[in-house]
Every structure is written in structure tokens, then in C-alpha cells.
Amino acid sequence: MAKKASKSNVLAYAPKGSGGAKGMPGSGVPRQDDARVMALDLPAGTLSPAMEAYFKKCEEKLGFVPNVLLAYAFDNAKLEAFAAFYNDLMLAPSGLSKLEREMIAVAVSSQNRCYYCLTAHGAAVRTYSGDPALGELMAMNYRAARLTKKQRAMLDFAVKMTNESFAIEEQDRDALRRVGFSDRDIFDIAAVAGFFNMSNRVASATDMRPNAVYHGQGR
Amino acid sequence: MAKKASKSNVLAYAPKGSGGAKGMPGSGVPRQDDARVMALDLPAGTLSPAMEAYFKKCEEKLGFVPNVLLAYAFDNAKLEAFAAFYNDLMLAPSGLSKLEREMIAVAVSSQNRCYYCLTAHGAAVRTYSGDPALGELMAMNYRAARLTKKQRAMLDFAVKMTNESFAIEEQDRDALRRVGFSDRDIFDIAAVAGFFNMSNRVASATDMRPNAVYHGQGR
Amino acid sequence: MAKKASKSNVLAYAPKGSGGAKGMPGSGVPRQDDARVMALDLPAGTLSPAMEAYFKKCEEKLGFVPNVLLAYAFDNAKLEAFAAFYNDLMLAPSGLSKLEREMIAVAVSSQNRCYYCLTAHGAAVRTYSGDPALGELMAMNYRAARLTKKQRAMLDFAVKMTNESFAIEEQDRDALRRVGFSDRDIFDIAAVAGFFNMSNRVASATDMRPNAVYHGQGR
Amino acid sequence: MAKKASKSNVLAYAPKGSGGAKGMPGSGVPRQDDARVMALDLPAGTLSPAMEAYFKKCEEKLGFVPNVLLAYAFDNAKLEAFAAFYNDLMLAPSGLSKLEREMIAVAVSSQNRCYYCLTAHGAAVRTYSGDPALGELMAMNYRAARLTKKQRAMLDFAVKMTNESFAIEEQDRDALRRVGFSDRDIFDIAAVAGFFNMSNRVASATDMRPNAVYHGQGR
Amino acid sequence: MAKKASKSNVLAYAPKGSGGAKGMPGSGVPRQDDARVMALDLPAGTLSPAMEAYFKKCEEKLGFVPNVLLAYAFDNAKLEAFAAFYNDLMLAPSGLSKLEREMIAVAVSSQNRCYYCLTAHGAAVRTYSGDPALGELMAMNYRAARLTKKQRAMLDFAVKMTNESFAIEEQDRDALRRVGFSDRDIFDIAAVAGFFNMSNRVASATDMRPNAVYHGQGR
Amino acid sequence: MAKKASKSNVLAYAPKGSGGAKGMPGSGVPRQDDARVMALDLPAGTLSPAMEAYFKKCEEKLGFVPNVLLAYAFDNAKLEAFAAFYNDLMLAPSGLSKLEREMIAVAVSSQNRCYYCLTAHGAAVRTYSGDPALGELMAMNYRAARLTKKQRAMLDFAVKMTNESFAIEEQDRDALRRVGFSDRDIFDIAAVAGFFNMSNRVASATDMRPNAVYHGQGR
């Protein structure tokens, strides 16, 4: 049986204890961890049982539902299509590890300066790698990171796709093949880099806000 | 019962009569309508009955299977996720007409200079509008087109999302609201513009080639 | 004996049968093939007998006078200087074929997103080559075209001239020499690429509109 | 009495407990918190008593000497000039609070993608404001932050100075005056934004590495 | 009767007294005033009597033949077309003064960083205006110059044409009309700005060198 | 004993004889050599005896006090910090000659289009080198200059630092080492290029105006 996703997408996860925090008194800068999910005011849609179960699973395993899912919850069909697409991309078997896919996500999001994705996926890089500095480097400047040649080639391709996709040619694919990526791996790199070029833009266009809990993860 | 999608993704739709065309003898420029689907060599996957039926429907209604679908056919799960996402986006009910969604697709693809998408969706704009010049303008420079204020605002937002999504703020959304778009319409504009920023990049990264038949449609 | 060029430059060639076309009823997008030549309202000048004869020749051979010539017709001296410069550039004997000069014209115009020049010279590439896809590729992304090494080097030079002429150095000229261009050929490549960087800008600055007939040529 | 600054600038502060950390076993990504100060190998200079005392004070108050100071320690005169300039800029009385000066530092460093400065000054923003999200927003995309009009105008000016200083004109200064900044405040904004455009570049040019301890501060 | 233009385009005007100058001994930087006209080695063509007379007139009135004319002298037809086009543009009656046309020339050439045109036309601005600083400002940053509103609008239009001609629209033309330019004036602004976008690129593509005498003119 | 630096920073050096110059009568362009030091109105500070002596020395050796020093004179501490930093950078012993440091200054300032620095340091390049054309080339397009390989590599590094410092990596430093620069030289190149990226921006942000006398130096 389907049910409404909370009341509206403007109600979102409230990180424990954030309510009372006020910053240094007198700093004059508003607190940043407001609770809106996005700047568009869309009435909550009716979730299918599958999506209802999915949200419950998020709460159980993560402790919260990622705001991007709440943002799509105004329309169950769009939510399902997004979740299916995303989960295949980031979690299905691939020649790329989950960490590598998250590294692409953050390096791409850095080019597009997407607050939502840098925050959520930066946390994933820190958590998967156990190395806080790696998450920072992906968000700040991947070129300054200590990487294997293969990882560096992967990120160079993803960033070139982001900044001048029209200039990608066979020699760029060959550079990936030379360091050991298969054609299937190349597809996966392209798919992940492509996806975050979409997701970054939708998040910025709607001012999607990351769950505040991400900021502290993996530090 | 599932079956293999032809032999491999390197076999694609051959436009009628293109085989014999040779261009002006002695021009010294190779013919451009080669038959590869993309630059990655991925063995054809096994299609689910649903996808098999979908391809058959494409052949019946369009006369061909769009190469982008053949490109994803190496992995049925990815194909299904892509097709579901795409069809919801471009064909589901929306405050934006199908023509308007295609106009966004082409204006975005023009910024990213994506040969595949400009060709396939340029054809769609020409066909939906019955106006060949409109298709050309979306691909060449949407600012030179004669548009209503509402259409222009829609494309300005989509192009800003494409070129500097990090700079989109509330006043950009308000500009859409002022010309009559609802918050739901804004989501749909963002979703379509976002999608082609993904699709353009995957197509360029894999050198996806449009079915040659698109070139002549709607002229 | 000299005579006035029609009444004003705002009267232009009307493509046969375009008058009645209305697009798909209800698309809500204005038709694009309006008949203004440009956005500046300049009274028609008095044509010299030579220019009068030139316009007549255009009508006989092409079926129309290209709008760019009508745009300059407010001042016979400017029209003559422009026509002489253009005809030497694009039609005089050269190591570059007419098709190659048109390919440069379109690749440059694509960088500058010039509606007039992409339309008029895109038609020329399609017609000279007998290959519609080649015209589209020059307008959309020349890097995606199948070209000989020599043609590719020629376009790379023309596009670098367009986007960062200040960075052209001896090694760029040497790259052309290595694939077989003479110093005279290099001058001609530079002259054609330079010219369209002028012409694109004058066309955009004055909102020059291409004759509608170009859209269908060479399809 | 002067003494040598450790043995060489390649010996730097080792964050407690970082030595043993290895990241998730099998992630295949090298740990990022190496201990080099910068990529240039410069023999340590002889510190003046004043600089010796300054380093000691850093150790006492911060628990470490910031790597940027170690980087300059190859030449006592340069170190003194840098420290004097920096301390006047960031710590002397000003109409701008220390937090505001750090916000400028991070917003500018984000444009220049400087790993050192984003890390060190991002920590300062988090610490001064008591708001971890504010530090992240300055580093990721200041436009997404919730700011007062005055703070926003200050950062817009600093970022325009960073990206197109040649385009700053009287109306830009007037925009600052209108929200309440004095001419002296404008000088200070310009001085801080200018300084980090220097410091970001020197840090990137020499691959200066931030003390690892910064990553965890103010979280 | 026609005659050869000196021996080759590699022989050019030698500024008086430059031969002996050697720069500060030991500076280690080569002298910059070499005598090549351009980097392409093209045999001198046969000048028509009209062009021969034109060169003679240059020598008499200026004391030298501008190198750009020597560069085109390999082909009399091209030289004539260029000279006719140029002289109509810069010297024919116009609502723009000769100084204003030269100001456009230099502001455009500054965007394209063209050494030849900045040198030759910077000299013209200094000479026509009697104000050396004005010539420097056009070459360095026209926005820093003290200009009338009308002159500023003219240069803003020319520079927008140079940097993003595709974005010029009716409101840009209206901005010119509002400060008092006629449609004919707008055409002339566009024509001059367009021309130097050609000429800058041909000069950079061929490494055309300015006559050394220009450096000292109007100081 | 300390004393006030003139009355205010809006009083500056008046170049001999510039007062009467009016430009060509009727040119319609205002004279450019106004006497304001910068666009911010800051009351003159009290100079320390050291700075008073420094200004006196400037007057004796140069004939004027550079306007940048007058601009900082509103605050003696800032003036002293700036002067100490600057003098160490540009005048202290270094593997780079003073001319080379000035060449970096001008090439960087050209990227940032800084009127003040191009004027003041362009004069220094002309004077140190004895070659007016070299000063012009650094300001217009350093790539067009005739340089030794070492000088070219130095400027390439400085300009890359200016335009995309985030992309500098070990291979860029190695390119400097290969042509003979030591690690200490690389630091000095970085320091000078970094400094002018600060100084250019402060000058543009405050509309600092160069002393008019610079225009004629070293011609």
C-alpha cells in the first residue's frame, strides 16, 4: 500500500543536535545547516511500496534518507527511474571499485562546484578510503593528490569529459587503454562522469541541500 | 525469452541507399556516414523480452533503432535503466511540450557540441515544429531564434545550467516563475537540461554516431 | 547607368512556398524564416553598373542574391570592396580546393556560432562534397568528422586561429608544413579563417539572416 | 642568537597518529598525508632570533608550525617579509573581522583550487565561525551559502578580483559602499583577496602541502 | 608598367639607427626589432602600377611602407583587395572619426593580443589624439580609460563582438542607439571591429612584425 | 620624527609639462593623465622616519615617488610591509636578473590587463634592456618575442601560474630545471609571478593610476 512521503519535500532530515548550534556568538554569519531540501516547492507525491521500502532501508542503514531522494519524491515515477539508474551506476559490479566511482563523482562535482554532490560524495570518498585528506583533495584539486597512474588517467578523462567533452577523441580513450582499462571500464568511467554532470546541474538548478550529517562523516 | 541484440554493437542501422553514395568524386574527404555505433568494442548483451519488444517497436514506428539504444545494449540492466529514465523525461506528461523538451535538448547539446545529440534531437525539433530553420537555430545559436519570452527564458536557464550551473541562484528561478513557469516546470527544465549534459558527454566520450537517417528528417 | 538596389535592405529574397508554411499548428514557436536581411535599417544605396550586373548574375546562377550582399548594398563602395575581397578569397586559384575553403568557413563559424555563415556555408559544404553529414559535422563539431590528416591539420589551425590566435607559433605552421601544405597554402588557410572571423562578427553584430533557401540545399 | 630551522624544509610537522593510518586495506589509493612541505628542495636557512621565537610561539599556541612558514624558512629575509605582510593583513585591526578575512581567503582559494590554502584557511573559517558547513561552502561554492547581503557583496568583489580583475570599475566599488563598507574596508577586502591570489599561486607552483592537522580542525 | 616588389617579402623597412642598438650589454635577451616581415616565405609578386604608386606614396608620406602591405605583396590581386577594403574602412567618410576607428582597432587587437596591430594602431591612436596615455590604455585595458559615455559604449560593443559575438542581440544595438549612434554608425563600428578580428588573426597566424618605427611614434 | 605624507593620497606626482597638454583639439577624448593616485579616498597616514627617508630617496633617484607607494601611505605599517616585501623580491640577490624579474612582472600583468603595472614595469623592461620593443612585447604578447629558451620557459611558467595555477605539476617544474633553473630560481620565479598576481589585482580593484612619467621612459 502506497503512502505519502512525509508532508512535503521541504521537510528533511534534521541532524542530531544541529538545532541548538548557533556558531560563535557575534560572528554575524547565518548558520548554514538549514533544513530545506531544495528551492522548489513541490507537494510530496505518493510513494510506491518499493520506494517506501527503499526509504526505510536508507533510514536503517544510513540513519537518514539522502536529500536527493527526498527531492525526487514529489513524483514516484521519477524517483524510481532515478534510483534505478543511480544504483546500477554506483553499486552494480564493475571494473571500477566503489571508491573509484566516488572519486570520479567528487572530481567531476568539483569542476561544477556542486555543493550537494561535493558534500555527499566527499563523505563517501573519505569513508570508503579511510583517508580524510583524499576526500578533500578530490573536492579541492585532484591534480594535487598522490594517485596511481591508472587512477590519475581515470580522473583526467572524467574531468576532460566535464570541461570539454567535445574534444575527447580516440587518443583519450587510448590513454585509458594503455594504463589497463578495458573498453567496458571506459564505458563505466564515462557513465559515472556523465551522470554527475547531470546530477550536479540538477542540484545546483534546484539549490538542493545536502543532509548536514555528511559534513562529519569519515573525518 | 531473452535473445542477443544482433551480434555486437558495432553493427548498426544502415540508412537506405547510403551505401552507394560516394560524394563528389575527387573531393578528397571521406564519407561521414559510417556504420559504427560507437568507438568502444563491447560484446552484445542478452536483451530481456521487454527490451526486445522495445527494439521491435522502434523498428516499426521509426524504421530503425536509435544508435544510443544499441550502444547501451551490451548490458540489459543499463539499457533498461537508461530507457526508463529517458522515456519518463521526454515523453511523460509535463508542463513542457515535447517540442520544448527537444528544444532544450538541442540548445544544451549545442553548448557541448555533441554530434550525436545535435543530429538526433535536431531532427526531432524540425519534425515536431514543422520548421527546419528552428532546428538549425537551436543547434547553431538559440539566441538568434525568434522565440516567445517564455521559451527564451527556458533556454537561457538551460544554457546557464550547462555553462555555469554553479552560478544559478534564486533570481534565475524567479526569472522562470515571472514568465509563467511553475516550480514543477522548473524541475522539468532542470531535469531535461541536466540529462543532456550527461548524454552529450557519454556520447562524446564513446564517439557515438547518429543513425544517418536523422540528417534528412524534417527538412 | 546606376540604379537603386530595390527599395531598402529590409526587402529580401522570399523562398518559394515558404510564405504559407505555418509550422505544426499549436507549437507556440514563431516561424523562423522571416524576411529581414539585418537588424539595421539602412536606406538602399545606388548600385554601380558592375554591382547591378553582379546581382543579376547571382539571380541567374543561384536563383537569389545572398543576403550578405543585400546587407552591404546600402553603400556601393563597401559592397564592391567586400565582393572583391570575398571572391578573390573563396574563388581564386589556390592550393586549397573550394570545398576545403568552405570547410574552414564552417568550422570557424561554428566556433563563433554565427547563424548566417553556418547556414550559407554549411549548404556549400553539403553541395560541394555531396555529403550532407559532412556539412553537419563542420557545423557541429569538426573533431568528430572522418578527415584525412591534412584536412584535420588545416581545420585545427583555423580553429586555433579563431580561439587563441595569440598562441599560434612556428610549431603550428610547421605542423601544416609537415602534412604537405606550402607557405602559400598556409597564407590561404589563414586568410580564409581570418575572413570568417570578421564576417561571423559583422553578421552577428547586425543580426544578418540567411536566405531561407539555404536550409534545404544539398540535403 | 640565530639557529638553523630544523635540517631542511622537507622535514615537517607530523600529525599525531597519522603515521600508522593506512586507509582501507586494498583501496589501492596512496595515503595523502605525506610529510614533505613543498616540491622544491631548498636547504634550510638560518633563522633570526625573531623568527626563532615566532616558530616557538606557533608550536606553543597552535601545536605546530604552519608549513607555509617552513617553506619560506630557507631564507630568513623572505620569511620575515612574508610573516610581517601576512600578520598585518590578517590580524591587524580592520573593519573586517578575522572570520570575514578568512572567508575571503577561502572563497578566493576556491577559484584558484589551491589545496594548501583551502585546507589551512577552511579550518580557520570552521573554527572562527563554529560552523563546519560554512567552511565547506566557502571552499565549494560561496554562492550557495546563506550570507548577509554585506558578506555576499564582499565575496562577490573578491571573486571578481580573482577571475577578472581587469573588469572591476567604480560601480563595483560603489556596490560595496552601498552595503556599508568604507573606502578603507574596500582597501582591506582588496588587500586580502589580492594576497591569496599570490599565496595560492606560490603554493601551487611549489606544491606546498598543508599540515595534516588542519583537516580535522573545527569539524 | 608593373615591377617586382623588392626581392621578397623578407626584406622590410629598416628603422633609422636601429642597426647599431644592442640593448644593455649582457642583458641576455635578443634584440626584438628584426627585419623579417612575416614567418611565411613567399616570393615577391609583380605589383600593378597602381600598387607601385601606392607604395611610393607610403614612402613619401609615412617614410616607410607598412609591413602588412609588404606581407600581401606576394600577390597583387590580394594586395589590391586588401588595400581597397582597408582604406574604405578606415579612411572613408563615416560618423566615426579616424581616431575613434583607431581606438576600436586597438581595443579589439588587445583582446586578441596581436603584436602587429597593437603596435601599428597604438601609434595611430597616440598620434591622432596627441595623448600617449590614451594609446597605452587602448592596448592595455580600455576599461581603465577616461572616456565619454558614447566612446565607452562603442568600445564595449566592439569588445563584446570580439569575445562573444554570438551573444550580441538587439539590446546591444539599442545601447549604441541610446548614446547617439545611428544605424549606419553601428554598421561602421561592426565593420571596424570585425576587420581587426580578421587582421589580428592573419597577423598572428603569419607572425607578421610591425615596422620598428611605430614604437616611437606619438610618444 | 614622523610626518604626514602630503595631505592625502589623492595628491600625486605631476609630470613636467603635462598640465598644459590638451591633445589634438576636437578629438573628443578626455586626456588620460589625471593626477589621482587611486579611486579610494583614504586620509594620509603618518609616515615613520624610515618611510619618510624612503620617499625622499625615491624623489632623488627617480624624480618622483611611485604612485603605488603613495597609495599605501594611508597606513605606515602597510606601507612598510609592502615596501619590504617588494624590495626583497625585486632587488635582493637572486639567480634571476632584475630585467628577468621585470619581464615576469610585465608578462603576468598583461594576462591580468593591469594598467598600473604594465605602465610602471613596462618602463622598467625598456630601461633595463635598452630595447623599447621588448617592453612592448612583454605587455602585448610575450609569445611573439624573440627569447632564449630559458627566458621563454620562465615566462611560460609565470603565465601558467597566472592563468591556471591549479594545473601546475612536477613536469612544469622539471621543464624549468631542464633549461637550467635551480630549485631556488624556481622559487624566485614563483614568488615574482605570484606577487604581481596580487599587485595587479589590488591596483585594478582600487583603480591605481601610474605616474605619467613612466609612459616616456626608455622609448
Summarize this entry quickly.
The structure is a homohexamer of 219-residue chains. By secondary structure, chain A is an all-alpha fold.
Structure description:
The structure is a homohexamer of 219-residue chains. Chain A is mainly alpha-helical. Chain A has helices spanning 49-62, 67-72, 76-91, 98-112, 115-129, 132-140, 149-164, 170-178, 183-205, and strands at residues 3-4, 46-47. Helix content of chain A is 56%, strand content 2%. The first copy, chain A, has a two-stranded antiparallel sheet with strand order 1-2. Chain A is globular and about 50 Å long. The interface between D and F is large, with 48 and 47 residues.
What are its keywords?
homohexamer; 219 residues; mainly alpha; two-stranded antiparallel sheet
- The oligomeric state is homohexamer
What is the tally of beta strands of chain A? Answer: 2
Q: What is the string of helix and strand elements of chain A?
A: EEHHHHHHHHH
Number of helices of chain A: 9
Summarize the amount of helix of chain A as a percent range: 55-70%
Greatest contact pair? Answer: A-B, 48 and 48 residues
What class would the helix/strand composition of chain A place it in? mainly alpha
Could you describe the largest sheet of chain A, including whether it forms a barrel?
A: 2 strands, antiparallel
Low-confidence stretches of chain A: 1-23
Mean pLDDT of chain A: 90
How many angstroms does the end-to-end distance of chain A come to?
40 Å
Task: Report the C-alpha radius of gyration of chain A, rounded.
Answer: 18 Å
Content of β-strand of chain A:
under 5%
Strands of the widest sheet of chain A, in order across it, are 1-2
Shape of chain A: globular
